């Protein structure tokens, strides 16, 4: 689902129409949230599998090169608010990924 910035002409809409538009946008956000939840759940499953392999290999939970690759990939063609927002979200995702791996590996 691709959504671009809203180009709402506020002067041409009534307060009631704006409230309906707000509800419509919130429903779209809910749909995006559901997709995020599904994708993040799949990511957790993959992280668990990666952690099990790292446990077997005795590898570290931190891989600077891999994290740099992730940030470069997700930052590509983003700028402004989108870049800042998405980078911050991915920083948190990666922090939580490392935390889950440490838990599985029995490390602090």
UniProtKB/TrEMBL annotation:
Q: Which residues form a coiled coil?
A: 15-42
**Which terms does the UniProt entry file under GO BP?**
chorismate metabolic process; salicylic acid biosynthetic process
Q: Which residues form the Chorismate mutase domain?
A: 16-105
EC annotation from Swiss-Prot or TrEMBL = 5.4.99.5
Q: Which GO terms describe its molecular function?
A: chorismate mutase activity
Q: Can the keyword Calcium be found in this entry's annotation?
A: no
Pfam families tied to this protein: CM_2 (PF01817)
Keyword NAD found: no
Report the domain of life of the source organism.
Bacteria
SMART domains per the record? CM_2
Task: Report keywords, A-Z.
Answer: Coiled coil, Isomerase
Residue ranges spanning the membrane: these are none
Q: State what protein this is by name.
A: chorismate mutase
